[in-house]
User: Which sequence fits this backbone?
């Protein structure tokens, strides 16, 4: 089936679903959207909603039969799968995923990512490979001439197809005489580079046209977006950028001891540029307030001490979160692993302006520390994918009980990881029981 025909069929399904939802609920999808958005908004602002907002997560292939690789090679079926999960489970905030073109990634020969259907089998999860794209003696070049560094050092290392860029002369001396270097662009490797970029661009253009706006599709059915990543905000901790994309974990860890000044300068520059390029929220877009996802990696106690956290990690993260707030966003920092008492630093930010997304092991600690100040979203354990439906329900109800004892405010959201084994009806009945149990 051609992409245009598949897209037309998808839109016909979209309209039929909208009509079915409105007939079943007796409400317009616009009313349903605002009901869910208000429930989440109340939780963020520490008011008491009618019940605890819920989000859900399940392995796409186990529920819909659509493999993970569809997010890279079959965009319309990927959208269809995410839509089915959302419509069936009716979360208060939905997730449309982060799809991108696998063909474009392959064409560019990207070095730091592995994805299903490409380097990995079709139903594997996305994997990130850390590489040392910036050497320890390149801090000064990065700090004094970041554009030159990115073009002649970083991009050729990140993408195999861009290797010829490393042969360019320093770009800060091209005030006159650019034409003198143009013969190199006629060489076979630069001609091939141009063809490769054209091909990658075409692949990405084709993919984006097919995927459209998955979040808007779900909004039309009454489901607000959970959070968007990298859509106008400032992002998160600049230390994570250095650690994951420039120096690698090993390099960044060593730099905290060997060249702390350079490391901090790099973090400051990254954050300054992000703030300068950030865009405020668009009041014409759906959703109020706008939420922006802020993935975090290195700030927990496994990677750094409390003293290091307060010196290298928190200052940049605090400035980034505050900048997001100032731009009109509600940042949703994802505290990976166990942060424990480090969550107290969130009290330095404005009240009722952030969703702190924490792992299940931090749930009660976060509730005790942040109750009455910051809304928390608790993510269920990864192991729950292997549980029974009843086990997930019992765990979630027990979690609700503990959170009620640990705090009095309504600032609570729960993200339920659904087990791989279960029927549609079992999932729906379980979620309905949890919704009732979570009423205030």
Assistant:
């Amino acid at each position: 089936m051609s992409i245009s025909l598949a897209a037309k069929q998808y839109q016909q399904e979209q309209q039929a679903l909208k009509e079915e939802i409105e007939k079943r609920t007796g409400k317009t999808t616009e009313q349903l959207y605002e009901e869910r958005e208000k429930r989440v908004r109340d939780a963020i602002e520490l008011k008491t909603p009618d019940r605890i907002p819920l989000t859900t997560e399940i392995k796409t292939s186990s529920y819909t039969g659509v493999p993970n690789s569809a997010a890279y090679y079959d965009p319309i079926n990927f959208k269809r799968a995410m839509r089915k999960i959302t419509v069936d489970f009716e979360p208060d905030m939905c997730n449309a995923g982060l799809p991108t073109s696998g063909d474009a990634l392959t064409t560019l020969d990207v070095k730091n990512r592995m994805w299903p259907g490409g380097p990995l089998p079709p139903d594997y999860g996305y994997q990130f490979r850390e590489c040392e794209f910036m050497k320890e003696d390149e801090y000064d070049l990065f700090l004094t001439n970041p554009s030159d560094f990115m073009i002649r050092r970083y991009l050729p290392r990140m993408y195999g197809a861009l290797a010829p860029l490393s042969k360019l002369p320093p770009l800060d001396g091209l005030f006159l005489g650019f034409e003198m270097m143009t013969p190199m662009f006629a060489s076979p490797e630069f001609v091939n580079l141009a063809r490769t970029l054209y091909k990658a661009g075409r692949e990405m253009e084709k993919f984006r046209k097919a995927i459209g706006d998955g979040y808007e599709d779900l909004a039309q059915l009454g489901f607000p977006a959970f959070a968007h990543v990298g859509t106008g905000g400032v992002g998160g901790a600049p230390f994570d950028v250095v650690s994951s994309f420039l120096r690698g974990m090993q390099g960044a860890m060593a730099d905290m001891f060997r060249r702390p000044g350079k490391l901090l300068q790099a973090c400051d520059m990254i954050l300054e540029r992000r703030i300068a390029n950030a865009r405020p929220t668009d009041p014409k877009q759906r959703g109020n307030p706008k939420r922006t996802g802020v993935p975090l990696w290195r700030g927990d106690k496994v990677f750094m001490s409390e003293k290091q956290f307060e010196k290298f990690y928190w200052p940049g993260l605090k400035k980034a979160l505050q900048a997001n707030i100032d731009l009109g966003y509600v940042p949703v920092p994802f505290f990976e692993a166990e942060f424990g008492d480090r969550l107290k630093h969130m009290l330095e930010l404005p009240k009722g302006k952030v969703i702190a997304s924490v792992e299940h092991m931090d749930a009660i600690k976060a509730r005790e520390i942040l109750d009455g100040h910051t809304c928390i979203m608790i993510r269920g354990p990864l192991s729950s994918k292997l549980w029974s439906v009843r086990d997930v329900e019992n765990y979630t109800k027990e979690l609700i009980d503990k959170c009620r004892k640990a705090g009095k405010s309504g600032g609570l959201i729960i993200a339920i990881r659904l087990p791989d084994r279960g029927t549609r009806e079992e999932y729906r009945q379980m979620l309905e029981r949890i919704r009732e149990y979570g009423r205030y």
